[in-house]
Specification:
Elements: H1 4-22, E1 30-34, H2 40-48, E2 53-56, H3 59-68, E3 74-77, H4 86-92, E4 95-99, H5 102-115, E5 120-124, H6 138-151, E6 156-161, H7 174-191, E7 197-199, H8 206-211, E8 216-219, H9 221-224, H10 247-250
Parallel strand pairs: 1-2, 1-8, 2-3, 3-4, 4-5, 5-6, 6-7
Length: 270
Amino acid sequence: MTDLNEILEGVRGKIAAACKRAGRDPAEVEIVAVTKTHGAEVVKEAWDAGLGIVGENKVQEAAWKKPASVSGPSWHLIGHLQSNKVRHALELFDVIHSVDSAKLADRINLIADETGASPRILLEVNVSGEKSKSGMRPEDVEPTVRHIVESCPRITLEGLMTMAPFSDNPEDARPYFRKLREMRDDLESRLNIGLPRLSMGMSGDYEVAVEEGATWVRLGTVLFGERPKAKKAVPGGDDGTTPCGDSDTYAGFGGLDSYSGEGPTARILD
């Protein structure tokens, strides 16, 4: 099995090469280590290898994994955030990449005001227009930015996030990454604000994303291999040894069904 440090050396080399092609400083690009469905030990492995940011898709998963993990990393929510999980998301995550509406921003601002939190967020934009992807329409971004700046004083809006359509050819992602960067640049110029962060690029297309201006690339498979798969949990428990039954389901997952996000923290509501 290849050592993570060796893998990272290769990934960072590719990031540096992409930065050179684009006339950028590699120090501008940070890796978000996506540990979705991996156990807490993978977070420690990432931290020990020098990766300071952990990305998780689900609030439920972070709720058990973060306490079980090494302290030190910054935790980022990169998956869809439901409004009824905002309170717990603010407790668990330092940055939320996936705010997709002014309504959700209002909810975040309200809970932050109650708890004294100072959330850092990105707006998720569905640049491709794919119905299967979350994120706001490009035409809704500017009014949402204006609303947050004017009406959400607890929130720090740091930039934009997107996902390109899946393709075996990384070059197919380039127009979507470029559009997000151009959108960000336009907003900064016309609204006189700073939006320094662009979260875009995953394991299959991160080099193109870096060439187009990404500051956070979200990498999982390229670092840790294919995500482990777990059997569906049996609701109600079978032998009293696991929260939702079937102890095999939870082996290596700290009590998580990797498909549903259910586990010891399955019911997380404000």
